[in-house]
């Protein structure tokens, strides 16, 4: 090995801007340990965001918005684009800069009043930025809402240059001014693009297309979970490299040794055909398909994160991901379809020794205060031995992980976890009904789960709950058991809630449909990359709407991923560290009407949606209705639609609009009451409480927070 190959590794949009991801650092650190030179690691996601508000990019954005048109679209796509354009905000780079400052400030970040305004400022900017592509394509700031044919995995859509170009247009100045010139001048022999999430795929494909044009001789490779999903879920083998046509090779599954062998091959002028996880483009000839290789964790070094642009992330602290295990030791859940093991739900279970984990986190804690164990699950005995050694050695860092709520976790053991720096855990409790848990093969009981949650909470460890309704044959009453479990134990969990069951092809449910009472199992119509299956099951379908309404009131949350209020984000761990299990109350405090608010100025936190074109307005109502926390048809046709600054839409009656219009300029509640003297004070007070609780109005002037004491 010469170690002379110059490589660049790119993490594309669209994904979490609050911290760097760890996939590329694992690859690079492994290759360096084998004698290769460090790669240039480019977080294009965060770089593209920051470039979007530079003076030149802002001027470009203004020009594009002034002449934006949907004339090149037709039919439903054109109507959707016109509808989503309703109510979109004007880009405000100064507000965005203030928002970024708050999110990176070690004091302001922890005042939720400031935090909310900051996140809404970022989301508002991204909404405006996305309007130059497909209006409405960005949700919650950094979540892609692409045209349906992209989201279901149509090969025709994923290879449509005009469609991909339009989706990528918001980042065009970054590509043209920064990324591609940098790569073209870099002299790289290998360029790798890693896509972890489905939202990143259209951007990874476009970047690959641009790289191939600018650097025709580079060896271009793709990897990451999403690339593996394309390979695994393609309904026909030839679809894989039809979608990934610009790549010389892809890495399927775990990539450390595969990436190193690619570097070795390029260094010697050969093809990396010997590693079973490397799939070469068909242009190189037919290749023998060998069984996938899984890494030996003892040979994987601690990742070096120093090459990431830490000053750019939207957080006040460094937060790194660490993976000392792979796979799941339980490996039985019938809904699960992780990994690439075709004989079971997840990839094979492996874990590092506790000694190596301690060595690794000792090194990582010198660099970052927060370490998240990015694993499917951690084994209880391993966690306990790890925590004991952390305490014995006096290591000072904060950590969290996803665990199973085993009865193993006594009060004493949970207290030890807290002393070792554990601030929160995430748990897939899945259901509050025993029959459904047995069908899932979860191996837990609701009462035992409640006891474990109690022990964690007593130790001041936040419990973030993840579950779902809609498992096949689940009745209305069984779904309500899950809702009641969370509703009746509000002091035992901090964030989370219940999603909706989705059937994936590799799950045991899909492989044994008769056992779970489902029929007519089929891909989503038009999908070629089949990530999700449709099926018929009348019992659960009959209860769907009522259950959705009940779930909507469970945990209103405040923001979707990647922000605080969602499960397992860096920001949630920062807040758990600062506020412990009281974090839910901290988030709720600003949504409550206080006695002093009579003298506080409030301002409308959004705007009503224009209703001039009834067809477009109705399309917007239907589109956004499906996105609410639950129920289709949640936005009645006879209501006024108010679009909050973060993009969430509310249906308000005529009288509510009369109240809300008062706050088009800053106004105190006392003055608003005087202007509405004909309205009973008790009625007006209920309206103010609703407006504040739903953040339809926000406090206009925020005091600088006092420095919190620990």
Automatic annotation (TrEMBL):
Highest taxon in the source lineage = Bacteria
* Record keywords: Iron, Iron-sulfur, Metal-binding, S-adenosyl-L-methionine
Q: Which residues form the B12-binding domain?
A: 135-273
Q: Where is the Radical SAM core domain?
A: 314-558
Task: Extract the SMART domains matched here.
Answer: Elp3
Q: Required cofactors, per record?
A: [4Fe-4S] cluster
Q: Which InterPro entries match?
A: BchE-like, Cobalamin-bd, Elp3/MiaA/NifB-like_rSAM, rSAM, rSAM_horseshoe, rSAM_sf
Identify one Pfam family in the record.
Radical_SAM
In Swiss-Prot or TrEMBL terms, this protein is called: Radical SAM protein
**Source species, please?**
Micromonospora chalcea
């Amino acid at each position: 090995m010469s170690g002379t190959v110059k490589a660049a590794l790119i993490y594309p949009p669209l994904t979490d801007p609050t911290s760097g991801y760890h996939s590329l650092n694992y690859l690079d650190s492994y290759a360096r340990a084998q004698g290769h030179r460090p790669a240039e690691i480019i977080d294009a996601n965060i770089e593209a965001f920051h470039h979007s508000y530079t003076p030149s990019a802002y001027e470009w954005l203004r020009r594009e918005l002034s002449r934006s048109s949907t004339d090149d679209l037709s039919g439903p796509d054109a109507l959707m684009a016109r509808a989503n354009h309703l109510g979109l905000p004007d880009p405000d780079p100064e507000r965005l800069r203030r928002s970024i400052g708050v999110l990176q400030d070690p004091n302001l970040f922890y005042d939720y009043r400031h935090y909310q305004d900051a996140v809404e400022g970022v989301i508002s900017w991204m909404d405006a930025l996305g309007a130059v592509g497909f209006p409405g394509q960005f949700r919650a700031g950094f979540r892609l809402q692409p045209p349906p044919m992209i989201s279901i995995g149509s090969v025709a859509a994923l290879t449509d240059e005009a469609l991909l170009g339009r989706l990528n247009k918001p980042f065009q100045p970054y590509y043209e001014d920064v990324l591609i010139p940098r790569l073209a001048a870099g002299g790289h022999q290998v360029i790798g693009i890693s896509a972890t999430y489905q939202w990143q795929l259209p951007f990874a494909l476009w970047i690959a297309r641009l790289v191939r044009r600018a650097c025709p001789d580079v060896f271009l490779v793709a990897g990451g979970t999403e690339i593996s999903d394309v390979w695994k879920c393609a309904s026909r083998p030839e679809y894989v490299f039809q979608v990934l046509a610009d790549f010389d090779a892809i890495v399927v599954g775990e990539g450390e040794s595969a990436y190193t062998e690619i570097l070795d091959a390029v260094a010697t002028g050969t093809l990396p055909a010997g590693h079973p996880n490397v799939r070469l483009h068909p242009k190189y000839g037919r290749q023998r398909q060998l069984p996938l290789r899984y890494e030996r964790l003892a040979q994987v070094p601690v990742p070096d994160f120093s090459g990431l642009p830490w000053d750019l992330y939207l957080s006040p602290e460094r937060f790194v991901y660490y993976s000392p295990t792979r796979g799941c030791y339980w490996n039985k859940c019938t809904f699960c379809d992780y990994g690439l093991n075709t004989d079971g739900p997840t990839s094979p279970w492996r874990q590092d020794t506790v000694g190596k984990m301690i060595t690794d986190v000792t090194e990582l804690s010198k660099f970052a205060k927060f370490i998240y164990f990015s694993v499917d699950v951690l084994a209880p005995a391993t966690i306990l031995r790890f925590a004991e050694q952390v305490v014995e050695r006096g290591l000072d860092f904060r950590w969290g992980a996803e665990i199973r709520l085993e009865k193993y976790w006594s009060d004493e053991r949970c207290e030890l976890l807290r002393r070792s720096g554990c601030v929160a855990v995430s748990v897939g409790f899945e259901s509050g009904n025993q029959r459904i848990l047995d069908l899932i093969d979860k191996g837990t009981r609701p009462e035992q789960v409640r006891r474990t949650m109690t022990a964690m909470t007593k130790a001041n460890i936040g419990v973030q709950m993840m579950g779902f309704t809609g498992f096949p044959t689940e009745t209305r009453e069984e779904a309500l058991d899950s809702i009641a479990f969370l509703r009746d134990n509000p002091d035992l969990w901090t964030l989370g809630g219940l999603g909706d069951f989705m059937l994936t092809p590799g799950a045991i449910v899909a492989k044994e449909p008769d056992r779970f009472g489902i029929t007519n199992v089929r891909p989503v119509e038009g999908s070629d990359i089949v990530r999700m299956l449709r099926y018929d099951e009348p019992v659960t379908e009959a209860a769907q709407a009522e259950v959705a309404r009940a779930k909507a009131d469970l945990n209103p949350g405040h923001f979707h991923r990647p922000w605080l209020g969602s499960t397992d984000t860096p920001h949630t761990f920062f807040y758990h560290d600062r506020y412990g299990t009281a974090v839910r109350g901290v988030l709720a405090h600003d949504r409550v009407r206080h006695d002093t608010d009579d003298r506080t100025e409030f301002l409308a936190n959004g705007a009503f949606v224009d209703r001039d074109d009834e067809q477009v307005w109705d399309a917007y109502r239907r589109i956004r209705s499906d996105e609410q926390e639950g129920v289709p048809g949640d936005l009645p046709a006879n209501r006024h639609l108010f679009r909050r600054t973060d993009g969430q839409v509310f249906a308000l009656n005529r009288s509510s609009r009369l109240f809300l219009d008062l706050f088009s300029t800053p106004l105190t509640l006392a003055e608003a009451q005087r202007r509405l003297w004909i309205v009973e004070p008790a009625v007006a007070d209920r309206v103010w409480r609703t407006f504040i609780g739903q953040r339809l109005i926000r406090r206009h002037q925020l005091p600088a927070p006092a420095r919190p004491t620990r």
